Amino acid sequence: MATAKQTLVIVESPTKARTIEKFLGRKYKVEACNGHVRDLPKSQIGMDIENDFEPKYITIRGRGEVLSRLRHEAKTAARVLLATDPDREGEAISWHLAHILNIDPASPCRVEFHEITSKAVNEAIKHPRAVCMPLVDAQQARRVLDRLVGYKISPLLWVKIKKGLSAGRVQSVATRMIVEREDEIESFIPEEYWDVTAQLAYGEKKFSAKLFRPEVHNEEEAKEAVSHLREQPLSVVDARTSERKKNPPPPFTTPNLQQEAARKLHFTTAKTMQIAQQLYEGVEIQGEGAVGLITYIRTDSVRLSDEAISAARAYIPDQYGPAYLPETPNIYKGRTRAQDAHEAIRPTDVTRRPEAVKASLSRDQYNLYRLIYLRFLSSQMTPALYDTETAEIASPDGMRLRFYGEHKKFSGFTLVYEEGTDEEVVSPETTLPRLKVGAAVELSDAAAEQHFTQPPPRYTEASLVRALEEKGIGRPSTYAPTISTIIARGYVTREKRKLYPTLLGRMVTQVMRDHFADIVDMRFTADMENKLDEIEEENLPWKQVIRDFYGPFDDMLKKAEQNIEKVKIADEVSDETCELCGAPMVYKMGRYGRFLACSRFPDCRGTKAIQVEIGVPCPLCGAPVLEKTSRKGRKFYGCKRYPECDFVSWDRPVAEKCPVCGSYMTLKESRKDGRWYLCSNEACRHREQAPDSSPAESAEE
């Protein structure tokens, strides 16, 4: 209980409360409100549309005990400080707490910090401010808009298509993007083209060059070009050398972190945010206690504090040498309308190296912290330098080949960090032949290879986040829940990190495009995000934004109610029969993905998990091994005879046995190391290269 001399500090999570209380000492008591305490009721639209959209807030179910404790502590405290997260949602939580605890929001009751360190927290406590109402209003506008869209459109979808469906400002646009990408892929017509590559020698240097003149369109032209190259002398007609500079990427914003964690760590956006939240709120470090390892995790700013830059500039020459420190700090320009109140995501202490705290972190925490740490450090290092060479080689009859090569001569920031990509990138030559104009080159071989143009790639979580960010749809805090929602609703499936629309997702998108065009229009959605920013900047009153939106939206609703025809979704029948009644089973979408249900539901409630055989016998009993999905959506592998046989593995087993000890092996793969087989025997762990894909895997593709 807070004494009369104590100050009550209210934060959002118990973890954060424990970390902060350690910094503040006995004169402070820190309590957690566990997130939002008031919201619009779930049972109704929750606003008075006739009374200028006035929200009707109620206490969230289950928060009564928390609020009773906070009221009791507030009565006996000398003062109350509201220290929720430094963003719109955090500001709104503080505003609601002020209302519940009878605190004047205009009084200096709000404290804000962007990292959970002793210095940051104590400095914030010394400078409380009033609750920022423009931030609160921007949050209220978003909440009311989302409620109007969700609670007005979703019931129509229930009636016309299927119960349990939902629509949302951002989720409907994201689903549309995935559907339209799939449409592009399905309608894509490949076009043939050929590459002719010559293997050349210049003295002792060997290199390759590609034919670019004449263009080769078919096999006949390709064969003719190869034949001509073999018959003609070749010489260098143009050669240039230069230096290429590659600058370091900026420190992480939330979308950048989600993309890079997906590429390098294979994390989902939701998992990235979950682990980042742990690192931000505080982790128990041996010898230090609870420590916040990174700054606030919801930001679209690339700005760094002067203090953080100075710390990095002091650390870099000491660790890597003065050549890796630029003369002046690297300053990065953020995207237009980025919220610059927060810094980029960075470590709270550059001297707290990932290796030094590895023993105190889980594997996922360590990997994400290391990613954030190295990205921040590299952002303040010198560029990487490359020697480059571009040359053209010609034959007397006018055939032209082009060579480009580069060689890294100074690693710069790449000594500690290389940015990932969504597509595989083939590096050019690493040895430069140093060609001279007029010099003869010798042809050792020439070959033609047929190619076909490829359709655009399916979205991954990383590329979808990038596309949403580029189009101005959503904000850093919305990307992870948006993707989680469209997968949970069954509009999209995730297979081998790629996002596919389901039949249901296509149908809902078609209805939205036909009857709610503005809601799924990307420009309209991006413009609405800009209006929310303008509310925060005090350029627009929030209710005016709602008024302007609701008139046209209400007209769309009335027309849709009359014009949407009821859609009957036929269940996809499986080959399985119900074990309870013998009726055919059909595929259904549930909370944890697809499953089989009896076609006689609700008369029969038989269900069964979908069983996918991977073409590998069980290492224990020889029965088929199945690919299964855990309740948290993670794939694992188990014997078909379970529970009679208890074989289970998180890693995919393969048919090959370990040549050293005879145990079964599992397939492992990564972008860096490719694919390999690893012995399951902890005492052996023999490793060997795996083929590009097994027959069973190829069948799945």
Average pLDDT, to the nearest integer?
91
Distance between the termini: 60 Å
| Unreliable segments of 5+ consecutive residues | 693-701
* Proportion in β-strands: 15-25%
Overall geometric form: globular
**What is the subunit arrangement here?**
single chain
Helix content: 25-40%
User: How would you sum up the major sheet?
Assistant: 6 strands, antiparallel, barrel
- Strand arrangement, largest sheet? 8-9-14-13-10-15
Number of beta-strand segments: 29
Counting DSSP H or I runs of 4 or more residues, the number of helices is 18
Cα gyration radius (Å)? 30 Å
Structural class: alpha+beta
Distinctive features:
single chain; 701 residues; alpha+beta; six-stranded antiparallel β-barrel; four-stranded antiparallel sheet; disordered C terminus
Quick rundown:
With 701 residues, the chain is α+β, with helices and mostly antiparallel strands. Helix content is 35%, strand content 24%.
Write a structural description.
- The chain is α+β, with helices and mostly antiparallel strands.
- The strands form 9 sheets. A 6-stranded antiparallel β-barrel has the order 8-9-14-13-10-15.
- The longest helix has 28 residues, at 133-160.
- The radius of gyration is 30 Å and the shape is globular.
- Mean pLDDT is 91; it is low at 693-701.
Q: What secondary-structure arrangement, pairings included, does this model have?
A:
Layout: E1 7-11, H1 14-24, E2 28-32, E3 38-39, E4 47-48, E5 54-55, E6 58-59, H2 64-76, E7 79-82, H3 88-100, H4 118-126, H5 133-160, H6 169-187, E8 192-202, E9 205-213, H7 219-231, E10 234-246, H8 254-265, H9 269-281, E11 283-285, E12 289-291, H10 306-320, H11 354-357, H12 363-379, E13 384-394, E14 400-410, E15 440-452, H13 461-470, H14 479-488, E16 492-495, E17 498-501, H15 503-515, H16 522-536, H17 542-563, E18 573-577, E19 584-590, E20 593-598, E21 607-608, E22 612-617, E23 624-629, E24 635-639, E25 648-649, E26 652-657, E27 664-670, E28 674-679, E29 687-689, H18 695-700
Parallel strand pairs: 1-2, 1-7
Antiparallel strand pairs: 3-6, 4-5, 8-9, 8-15, 9-14, 10-13, 10-15, 11-12, 13-14, 16-17, 18-19, 19-20, 20-21, 22-23, 23-24, 24-25, 26-27, 27-28, 28-29
Helix pairs in contact: 1-4, 3-5, 5-16, 5-17, 6-14, 6-15, 8-12, 8-13, 9-12
